[in-house]
Amino acid sequence: QEKWVVITNENDYPIFVLNADQFLRDAMYAKEVKSTYTYCHRPIIVTQQGTKLGEVILEFKVRPEHEDDDVVDNDIILYWNIEKRIITGADILGRLLRGIVKRGNVSNQG
Fold first, then answer.
1. 108 found inside a domain
2. 41 falls in which pLDDT band (50, 70, 90)?
3. How far apart are the first and last CA of the chain?
4. What are the DSSP calls for 13-74, one per residue?
């Protein structure tokens, strides 16, 4: 259930990650055409092997649209090394809350 597409430059260096799920839904069903950039996020790119998550979290940003807006906007980390990996803010929150929140049964939908 991967929804991110990494967009790279001509040197295979990542520039954006595209929320493919939302992009495709809107492309198929939305009445209004939006710019592709609406669905793109600028990831925090980590190329140094061994970089700790604590170092990277300091780069998370909130760009408030109103006084009470606390939503983290820059919350996608892209580890771009031998092993490539996307980590989202939701992934981190899920890991932090593991063992604290109630967990339902695994769904066997395929």
1. no
2. very high
3. 10
4. -EEEEEEHHHHHHHHHH-SS---GGGGEE-PEEE-STT--HHHHHTT-EE--SSTT---EEE
Residue 59's nearest CA partner among 40, 49, 46, 41 is 46
Give pLDDT, residue 38. Answer: 92
Q: Alpha-carbon dihedral of residues 58, 74, 88, 23, nearest 10 degrees?
A: -170
Residue 59 has pLDDT above 80, yes or no: yes
Token match 């492309």: residue? Answer: 27
Read off the pTM. Answer: 0.77
* Number of independent structural domains in the chain: 1
